[in-house]
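Obj: model holo form, ligand = zinc ion.
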Amino acid sequence: MVKYLFILGLITIAPRVLADEICPAAPLPSNQLAEIEKILSPLKQRQIKYGNNCAKEFGTDFEQLVNESINDGLKCLNGLNTQSSKDISKKLENLFQDRTNIIECKNLGTKDSTITAESSVDDHQNRPEEKLFHPYLILNADKLKGDDPASKEFLKSTIFHESIHNMSYAHGDGPEIAYTCEACCFNTGSPETRDLACRACGASLGDALNTKYIHAILPWAQATKSTYRLALDDLTYKGLIQEPGSKDYLEALIQIHPFAGEDIINKVMARNLVKNQILNSDKAIEISKLPIEAPAELIQLAEKIVAVRMALLVEGNASKAFDLAKRIDLSHYQALGKKYQNDDFSNLYYGLNDDLSHIGKDIELQKKRAEEFEDFHFQFKIVN
Ligand SMILES: [Zn+2]
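Output (holo structure tokens):
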């Protein structure tokens, strides 16, 4: 149950803009204002059941604040004026019409806990013993209450974020809507990354594997060092397994740095792709020219891993990739792992691990060399 609960970590409260400010990505045409007002007016009858503690914890204007949060979110999404943002806005509007939403306010966990809120993404998270039925959200009063404007804005942005989870959008599983649209509409990130968040939010509905979406969210994920980089790495990888050699996915893959430290594999991979004239964009050339500040023996290992990656992701040849992986001396690999027990080695480890798991799936799928692979993979796991 717990793994399905999505938690918004406590973030530093940055100075905020006025709540009714419209996202900066696209000014709202005046003829649309009337339309939005039309959308908002029937929503005064939103179906929301408030917990008894909410007014006690957050004050008698709490209901008004919830409505402001949703109204501000709807205005912002409509102001972005993309198909995705309009679709998300419609879903948000329907969320409060189709079923009764439960908003509970209580103290979650200990005083030191960083949990600000919890919410349901589907009916599997119903908690009948607590009378919580999807869609519900629980606000951690300890962390969210306060009379100053910044606290009120943080509370509003949290309600909006959790409502997006209530629309069945989780983190790391499909497009990242909660963080990007929250940062866009409530300015919860740094001011410099807000526009990137708006672009990602505006492109976010639909297939997360879509390369247009990946390229739209990538600048935001990089600039904010979001954990979504892990999901993006995974998505581009999946895309390349389906479409080996796709330039759009390869461009994204060499730009994603999901792990801390120098990303040796990406730079070596970019050099390889540019040298072999597979990629020739300015960005790929720029990455290929970046200095690699790592010990020579790690760069040599990265080159061997990239050879595996080129066979797997560019040629789509899992058997060849497996043969190249087997040429990596496992005892030498193990020795390097012990010597560089830090970020320098970790991305090489995770890089090769990713490759092996996909080689394994492919070989398993085609029932070729499966036993041989299992044996090799077992040894690889033992050394790490
Ligand atoms: Zn969340």
